[in-house]
Amino acid sequence: MNGDGEKGARGPGAHARKRKVRIGGASGFWGDSALGPQQLVAHGDVDFLVFDYLAETTMSILAGARLRNPAVGYATDFVDIAMKSVLREIVERGIRVVSNAGGVAPQACARALVELAQSQGVALDMAVVEGDDAMPVVDALRAASAHAGEGAFIDVEGRSVPARLLSANAYLGALPVRAALDAGAQVVVTGRCVDSAVTLGALLHAFDWSADDYDRLAAGSLAGHLIECGCQATGGLHTDWETVPDWPNIGYPIVECMADGEFVVTKPPGTGGKVTPAVVAEQLLYEIGDPAAYRLPDVVCDFRQMRLSADGADRVRVRGARGRAPDDRYKVSATHIDGYRSSAMLTIVGIDAVAKARRTGEAILARTRAMFARLGWPDYGAALVEVLGTESGYGPHANVALQAAREAVLRVSVRHARREALELFSREIAPAGTSWAPGTTGATGRPSVSPSIRQLAFFVEKNRFAPAVVFRGERIEVEIPSGGDSAGAGDADAADRNPGSAHRTPPANGGDPARVPDVAPDADAAPGADLVEVPLLRLAWARSGDKGDTSNIGVIARSAALVPVLRAQLTAECVAAHLAHLVEGPVVRYELPGIGGFNFVCERALGGGGMTSLRNDPLGKGMAQMLLSMPLRVDPRRLASIPAGA
Predict the structure, then answer these.
(1) How many angstroms separate the CA atoms of 589 and 578, rounded?
(2) CA 244, 248, 254 angle in degrees (round to 5)?
(3) DSSP state of 217
(4) 79 with 116: CB under 8 angstroms?
(5) Contact present, 268 and 39 (Cβ < 8 Å)
(6) DSSP letter string over 391-427?
(7) pTM of the prediction?
(8) Residue 106 belongs to what H/E stretch?
(9) CA 59 from chain center: how many Å?
(10) Cα angle 343, 344, 347; round to 5
(11) What are the CA-CA distances from residue 468 to residues 125, 175, 476, 480 (Å)?
């Protein structure tokens, strides 16, 4: 432990005398490396270990798993891999653990962890946070709506919520986690909560922050946000990837937090990766939407004036988060089955491989469509042919030279309302190896057919839920402040209430993805300066992520002198035009002056997103990389302002 408080302290305010608390982010998703918890426990000198497993796509997977087997529905890696390797040492060192690995079955997760502890002869005080299951609430709301004649129950996009849902879970906040730690639990397992709540709950307990100390709650939420994706805070996915040392031993992130809300992002000594303001800024912008109104159950955060500064080697100090009261609703994430899906892949080798691959994909679809018609079945709900390795995702910006590649990977993805239709599709992939293009290979058996699980979201008043902690056989009810007016802070129209902070555009180019509007020159260039055209990569770092069918692209200028160039040329209209082959909805630009950053929120950008999308990149991880190829014009003297190594 770090020596600033009593080792293994328990109970409310037990850590309140600490000057600082160190929290390690041991997992960024279900499937993350087993290295994280082992590294942080052995070398991180941490007080708390937090695990985040529940991406929206993961909830869909867990809901599907529970559909097949009611006894499952939690992130099994947490028990079978992560905790199994470090449980004894965690108990010996007095490290406390918070994890949302419970998924849609937190009690099943807890039982499995108890069995693990018993098998290792370890005594474990463990609590479970319950109350996120929204299925009973949805049923009651639907019945009340029908009884009142108010029409269909709709989601945030105005669509009717299906009558049969696989799952519906509210994004709970940090107060139940705090209550579990206050009660004395060493390990806390939750179901669905916001990703940052596992960290904020630990800080609420450690520093005894009040539930209305919104600036500190915003800072603690940001600390959690920065480490919730594991190594993305320590050089993982960094734009300048070639500068990140020792990938095999990359360090997992640690936040070293002070009672006033200021904190430092770092990593265990002697590990790979790097922690710099640029790396942290990329993660700060990751999936936050409007930085003036990052809506969480405990607080609405404003990150526009955040400041990041180097604080020594692999240490970045973070300050400037502001917060205000949350509203009176929880966001609910739900899933339902929307037909079935399947994806097939083949490799095509030889001259004209790309053309052969495309013709093969089209032939598979034409043949199976004809078979469907003879059987009286409808057409595919959606179908997509991609030729990987030819920049097919880049649309009109693809490198023409790659069309002459002599090796290509064909990917054909489809959705259909009937499982048997996709089983027929699955059978018709292998015949391509003998029927059509020479050089066809790579078939690895019939592709699987699985339910197409669609995610949707809606808001429900907090007073309809009763979060509670189950600890030592007792149920502890957790009081949740009602929050403010649901029409206030954090709603979908927050950008309109912040003049100058957001820049909106309708869908790009009237549907013409090839037309890119003229961009403004370097507005502040010296008169007569000869401008040079460079890719955005020369001027900025960028990171992209997803929320459902929305892509979030964060861009940070490499120097303050380049911010005016980005402001003038990297407009919402230009981004919408550059990505028009992928983005069907509007694009909104937000600015973060504190870090020289811009955040682009692109709606209807991921083909449905998650397990619904047929794209090879359903989560939009490559969209920032595509945007970094966009050309901008700049005075060469501004390029000289970029620090060495940036």
Answers:
(1) 14
(2) 70
(3) H
(4) yes
(5) yes
(6) TGGGGGGS-GGGGG-SEEEEEEEEEES-HHHHHHHHH
(7) 0.91
(8) helix 106-119
(9) 12
(10) 145
(11) 17, 10, 5, 10
Residue 3 predicted with pLDDT over 50: no
* DSSP element (H, E) containing 42: helix 35-43
Rounded CA gap, 32 and 120, in Å? 24
**What sign does the dihedral 244-246-248-250 (CA atoms) show?**
negative
Phi, psi of 200 (to 5 degrees): -60, -40
The answer on pLDDT for 519 being more than 60 is no
What does the H/E/C string look like for 275-329? CCHHHHHHHHCCCCCCCCCEECCCCEEECCCCEEEECCCCCEEEECCEEECCECE
Asked whether 59 and 67 are in contact (CB, 8 A), the reply is no
The rounded mean pLDDT for the chain is: 90
| Encoded amino acid at 66, one letter | R
pLDDT at res. 524: 61
Residue 148 is predicted with a pLDDT of 64
Q: Is the pLDDT of residue 507 over 80?
A: no
Q: Per residue in 187-229, pLDDT tens?
A: 999 999 999 999 999 999 999 999 999 999 999 999 999 999 9
Q: Is the pLDDT of residue 385 over 80?
A: yes
- Provide the CA 468 distance to its chain's centre, in angstroms: 26
CA angle, 613 then 615 then 620, to 5°: 85
Confidence check: pLDDT of 19 > 90: no
* Furthest C-alpha separation in the chain: 77
